[in-house]
Amino acid sequence: MIWPRRDFKFPNTVNGLLSEPEGDSEMRPEIVLFGDSITAQSFRSGGWGSALADAYSRKADVVVRGYGGYNTRWALFLLHHIFPLGSSSPPVATTIFFGANDAALKGRTSDRQHVPVEEYTDNVRKIVQHLKKCSPTMLIVLITPPPIDEAGRQSYAESIYGEKAMKEPERTNETTGVYAQHCVALAEELGLRCVNLWSKMQETNDWQKKYLSDGLHLTPEGNGVVFDEVSRVFREAWLSPEEMPFDFPHHSHIDGKNPSKAFEERCL
Amino acid sequence: MIWPRRDFKFPNTVNGLLSEPEGDSEMRPEIVLFGDSITAQSFRSGGWGSALADAYSRKADVVVRGYGGYNTRWALFLLHHIFPLGSSSPPVATTIFFGANDAALKGRTSDRQHVPVEEYTDNVRKIVQHLKKCSPTMLIVLITPPPIDEAGRQSYAESIYGEKAMKEPERTNETTGVYAQHCVALAEELGLRCVNLWSKMQETNDWQKKYLSDGLHLTPEGNGVVFDEVSRVFREAWLSPEEMPFDFPHHSHIDGKNPSKAFEERCL
Question: Of A53, B40, B130, B227, which shows the fewest CB atoms inside 10 Å?
Fold first, then answer.
């Protein structure tokens, strides 16, 4: 694939400095990670967001737009701000990674965050439709919520609230699985790529402790699964860091005696 | 401090979606990390860049502009592209972190990267002057190169090249220290804040193995020092994440029964 929207023009040098490009230059395409706390925390040590940023180093900017506690209903309020229509440089790719809060059970301690599965599906559809309006060529990847370890969630609540901890789970793996199924079905309906994290993680023994730190959020190993899966899907969609150009010459291509040559010759 | 350049206007909602902002919205200020491989690698697991991105989560975007192998002479070629004059949204803060390659010794294996210390100083001054032209209020932090562990560098070379490894060091701690001193002096001359990493790291016993992975690049602990020092300097300059507003309401401020209220009322 020829790189989309790569209208970067390399200028001539003036007095050893590159001359001024017109307006803000767009050196690198943007990959936006849009989601809830699992996205917001993705730049912690071992996080899937920072691993992506590292993998696309000097090729693309990975921009985190994670909102802890948000469900898709609240995410809609942000949509036009994070992804304004008419932007001259919309992201080349966006991950949409909600559902963990939508799937909180009605009438339990996280009731406030609950969104019925039909509305969740419709909200994700609205997000996708908006992104496609921003840029019809944008790669959009849906990510299902991860599985829930109810025992781990209970232990976590007890470690925080002691005896006052919830007695009944505020999320169940079964219900979250229904949201995951709807996410997968929506991706099929809309012809989008999807990471079924809920299923993928449960293929591994001891996924409850291996991948989840509190029954819901991800351990570094869990972050590794998201990174591997998102990387795989991006590569399948031709958004492979190896195929993408560096923003500027690799240092080994710079002639120490005549450095400007590498900068002049490079036509991105 | 009142947040600079925060001309964000929160719009009214239309049909439950936020109405279209004019042009590209600038929701978050940008912090740019400009430097060589030690900046480029700062989003690896345990890296100082991703730790900063996490600390400023939902407050500022941390943008990595690290170029492995680059010295300040080559960095000048990128200056107008990374920091175009006339940008409507220049970074609020930039770290300038070069010198490790400039300080490579003349006539040794990394000769190509060598830049005399006077030119290094002048190049960093040019970078600063350009950034201040972009935005006179930009917080600019100079970072000196880290110390060099010559034995560690030699071991690393042998692990890669075996018997063909360099016999004489391509960098020495003493010479790199001269570059660090010039960096500190330049910061004083220009009234800029500075992280003297070369000195700071050597205050700790076993800094050679504790902070450096190959005699030059940083271990996770070494990354931790950079993160701590840059965070400290940012805070001293009032760029403290705790003082900065969230880009959008915290989920706990959203009324589950009337979510639009939180979005309408929030005037950033």
Answer: B130
